[in-house]
Write a structure and sequence with these properties.
Layout (H helix, E strand, L loop, with lengths): L6 H7 L3 H5 L4 H26 L11 H30 L10 H25 L10 E2 L4 E2 H22 L1 H7 L9
Helix pairs in contact: 3-4, 3-6, 4-5, 4-6, 5-6
C-alpha cells in the first residue's frame, strides 16, 4: 500500500489537494470551535423547543417557561457535541479531525451521537427524570424516543459540517482561481 497520492488520485476522489495537504491553522481551529459552540446551541435550541410537547412535564406550558426550563438541556447538548468531537479527536490523534471534509468524519460523529442519545434517554427514563407523552414516537426495543435519538444523530454531524465550512471558508476562497472581470 502506498503512502503518497498523486494529483490524479485527488481528482478521482473529488478532493482539492490544497484542502487536504495543509494542516489547519490556529485561527481556523479557533474559528471552528467558536462556530461549533454557536451552531450547536442554535440548532439544539430549535430542536428542543420543537420536541417539548412530546415530554409530559413540558407539554402545554407557555413558551417562555419552556425556554427557561430547556436552557440547561440545550447547554448540555452543546457539551455533548464537544464531548463527541473530543472522542473522535482522541481516536484520530488529531484535534482538527473535524476539519477534514470526509464522509467518515460525519458518519463517526453521527454514530457517536446516536449512541449517546440512546444512553442518555434510557438513563433519564429509567430514573424518572422525564417521560414521554403519546405524541413521542418510540423505538420499541430501545425504549427511547425517536426525536431525541434523531437530534444527536442529525444535529451533531450537521454542526461539525457547518462549522468546518465556516472555519475553512477563507482557505477555500484562496484555492479558487480568480475570475476574469472582463469576461461578460
Amino acid at each position: 500500500m502506498r503512502d503518497e497520492f498523486t494529483d490524479q488520485d485527488f481528482e478521482r476522489a473529488g478532493v482539492e489537494r490544497q484542502m487536504t495537504n495543509r494542516k489547519c491553522t490556529h485561527q481556523e481551529l479557533t474559528r471552528f470551535f467558536v462556530c461549533m459552540a454557536l451552531v450547536s446551541f442554535l440548532l439544539h435550541a430549535v430542536w428542543e423547543m420543537a420536541q417539548m410537547p412530546a415530554y409530559k412535564d413540558l407539554a402545554g406550558r407557555p413558551l417562555l417557561e419552556t425556554a427557561v426550563r430547556c436552557t440547561p438541556a440545550i447547554l448540555g447538548d452543546v457539551v455533548i457535541t464537544f464531548w463527541i468531537y473530543a472522542i473522535g479527536a482522541l481516536a484520530a490523534h488529531s484535534l482538527s479531525w473535524g476539519l477534514q471534509p470526509r464522509w467518515n468524519v460525519y458518519l463517526a460523529v453521527a454514530l457517536l451521537g446516536a449512541m449517546h442519545a440512546i444512553w442518555i434517554e434510557q438513563a433519564a427514563i429509567a430514573s424518572g427524570r422525564w417521560s414521554y407523552t403519546d405524541t413521542m414516537p418510540t423505538i420499541p426495543r430501545l425504549g427511547v424516543g425517536v426525536w431525541p435519538l434523531m437530534q444527536l444523530l442529525v444535529l451533531t454531524p450537521l454542526t461539525v459540517w457547518l462549522s468546518s465550512r465556516y472555519a475553512l471558508r477563507k482557505r477555500t476562497r484562496a484555492t479558487q482561481p480568480a475570475s476574469d472581470s472582463t469576461t461578460p
